[in-house]
UniProtKB/TrEMBL annotation:
Designated name of the protein: Cobalt ABC transporter ATP-binding subunit
Keyword field contains Coiled coil: no
Organism: Spiroplasma sabaudiense Ar-1343
CDD domains assigned: ABC_cobalt_CbiO_domain1
Similarity annotation: Belongs to the ABC transporter superfamily.
Location(s) in or outside the cell: Cell membrane
A GO CC term assigned to this protein in UniProt: ATP-binding cassette (ABC) transporter complex
GO molecular function, one term: ATP binding
Keywords: ATP-binding, Cell membrane, Membrane, Nucleotide-binding, Translocase, Transport
Domain ABC transporter as annotated: residue spans: 131-365
Main localization of the protein described in the UniProt heading: membrane
Highest rank taxon of the organism: Bacteria
Length: 399
C-alpha cells in the first residue's frame, strides 16, 4: 500500500525543482536589473525593458506553479482519510499510522522547502552509497588531454577512502569534480542516491565539505570564531544556533580555547584544525581532505592525522583523503589508486599492498611499515599486515 503514497524521493525532486526554478527567477531578476542599468546609461533602448519584464513575469509564474503544487497536501489528506478508517485493533492500523505520520512529515518539509525557496533545504539520503561515480571524465580544455578518465567507483557511507597516485595523476581534479568546482565532460555522479546535475549542484553540495592543502589560504575571519561562523552565516543559519555549532565544531578539533585568537597567529596544525572545524560546523556527511597534511611540520601532521582518525572512528562521516603520505593508507578502509587519470585499483589497504611491484611501477612508495614487513619476510619472518608501528613491534615480540 505504501507504494501509492509519496516518499522521500518525491520530496527531493520537489526541492530540486524549486531550487532550479528559483535560480531561473533570480537570473531573470538579475537580467532585468542589468537592463535597467544599461537603459539609464543610454546603452540600451527603453523598449527593451518590456522583454525583460515579460521574462521575469514568466519565471515568477513558473516558480509559483511549482511552489503551489498540492501534491503533498493531497497525499496527506489521503493518508489521513485512510488512517481514520481503521480502529486500533485492526491489523492494518499500524501501517496506516506510519503512512499518515510520514505524509505529515513530507507535507511539513515541503512547506519548509517553499519558505526557504528550495535553496537552504537539505536533501534526504536516498541510499547508503555516499558517492557513486560512473565513467566520470574530464579535460581542462576541449582539445587538451583527458585528465580524469572514465572513473567509476562506489563508496559507502562512513568509509574512509585514501586517494593516492603520483603527481599529475588526477587526484585534485577528481576532488574538484566531486565538489562541483569543475564540470565533467561525460559520466555521472550521485551523492547519497541523488543524481548530481548542474541545476541541483548548490543543494547537493551541502553533503560535502573540503579541507585544502594550504592552511593560510583558508581564512576569512579575524578570529577563529569568526572564521567558523563565516560558513554558517553564508548558509543563513539561525544566529541563535550559531554559538553552539561553533563551540561543538571547535571542541571536535580541540580548538575550543582558541575561539578569540587570530587565525594567522596559530601554528600550521592548529590552522588546519580550524579549517576542519569550519567544515564540520556545516555538518557535511562527506569530507574531502585535499592533501590537508602535506604543508605541515611533523607535529602539525600528527595533530591533523589524529583528528582525521578520530573522525573516521565515529563513522558519522564519509572521508576522502587525497594524500602522498603512503603511511596514511594503512588507516583507510579503502584505497583508490590513480594513474594517468584512471582509477587503476580500488580495494582495502591489504589488497592494494599485495601487489607492491605494481605500486612501484607507477612510482608510488611502499608504506614504511609494509617495507619493514617485506624485509622481515625476506629474512623468513612472516608477520600479518599491521596498521601502525606499535602493532608491528608487538607482533615481532610474540615471534
Ligand atoms: N588548471 C589546470 N589547467 C590545465 N591543466 C591542469 C590544471 N590543473 C591541473 N592540470 C593538469 O591535469 C592533470 C592532473 O592534475 P591534478 O592536479 O589533478 O593531479 P594530482 O594527482 O592532484 O597531482 P598532485 O599530486 O601534483 O597535486 C595534470 O596533468 C595537470 O598538469
Amino acid at each position: 500500500m505504501k507504494d501509492i503514497y509519496l516518499n522521500n524521493n518525491d520530496l527531493n525532486d520537489f526541492k530540486l525543482k524549486l531550487n532550479e526554478y528559483n535560480d531561473r527567477l533570480a537570473h531573470a531578476g538579475q537580467e532585468y536589473v542589468e537592463m535597467k542599468f544599461k537603459i539609464s546609461n543610454g546603452e540600451s533602448e527603453k523598449s527593451e525593458k518590456l522583454i525583460y519584464i515579460e521574462k521575469h513575469r514568466i519565471a515568477k509564474k513558473e516558480y509559483n506553479e511549482i511552489a503551489k503544487t498540492p501534491i503533498f497536501k493531497d497525499n496527506f489528506l489521503r493518508a489521513k482519510v485512510n488512517f481514520q478508517k481503521y480502529s486500533k485493533n485492526d491489523p492494518k492500523y499500524q501501517e496506516a499510522l506510519e503512512i499518515y505520520v510520514e505524509a505529515k512529515r513530507l507535507l511539513k518539509n515541503s512547506k519548509l522547502a517553499i519558505r526557504e525557496r528550495g535553496v537552504s533545504g537539505e536533501l534526504s539520503k536516498l541510499s547508503n552509497v555516499a558517492l557513486e561515480l560512473k565513467d566520470l571524465t574530464f579535460s581542462y580544455k576541449s582539445n587538451s588531454p583527458i585528465v580524469v578518465n572514465k572513473v567509476s567507483v562506489k563508496v559507502n557511507q562512513g568509509e574512509y577512502v585514501a586517494i593516492i597516485g603520483h603527481n599529475g595523476s588526477g587526484k585534485s581534479t577528481l576532488s574538484k569534480l566531486i565538489i562541483g568546482v569543475l564540470t565533467p565532460i561525460s559520466g555521472s555522479m550521485s551523492i547519497f542516491g541523488n543524481h548530481v546535475t548542474r541545476n541541483n549542484l548548490n543543494i547537493v553540495r551541502k553533503f560535502l565539505g573540503i579541507v585544502f592543502q594550504n592552511p593560510d589560504n583558508q581564512f576569512i575571519g579575524s578570529t577563529v570564531k569568526d572564521d567558523i561562523a563565516f560558513g554558517l552565516e553564508n548558509r543563513r543559519i539561525d544566529p541563535k544556533l550559531m554559538q553552539e555549532k561553533i563551540e561543538t565544531a571547535a571542541k571536535k578539533v580541540r580548538m575550543e580555547n582558541f575561539l578569540d585568537h587570530e587565525p594567522l597567529m596559530l601554528s600550521g596544525g592548529q590552522k588546519q584544525r580550524v579549517a576542519i572545524a569550519s567544515a564540520l560546523a556545516l555538518s557535511p556527511d562527506i569530507i574531502i581532505f585535499d592533501e590537508a597534511t602535506s604543508m605541515l611540520d611533523p607535529k602539525g601532521k600528527r595533530e591533523v592525522k589524529e583528528i582525521m582518525v578520530e573522525l573516521k572512528n565515529t563513522r558519522e562521516k564519509t572521508i576522502f583523503s587525497i594524500t602522498h603520505d603512503m603511511d596514511e593508507i594503512l588507516n583507510a578502509d579503502k584505497v583508490m589508486v590513480m594513474n594517468n587519470g584512471k582509477l587503476v585499483k580500488f580495494g582495502s589497504p591489504e589488497e592494494i599492498l599485495e601487489d607492491r611491484n605494481f605500486l612501484r611501477s607507477i612510482h608510488l612508495d611502499i608504506p614504511f611499515i609494509a617495507q619493514v614487513e617485506e624485509s622481515l619476510e625476506e629474512l623468513g619472518i612472516k608477520v600479518s599486515h599491521s596498521d601502525n608501528l606499535d602493532e608491528l613491534v608487538g607482533k615481532i615480540w610474540k615471534k
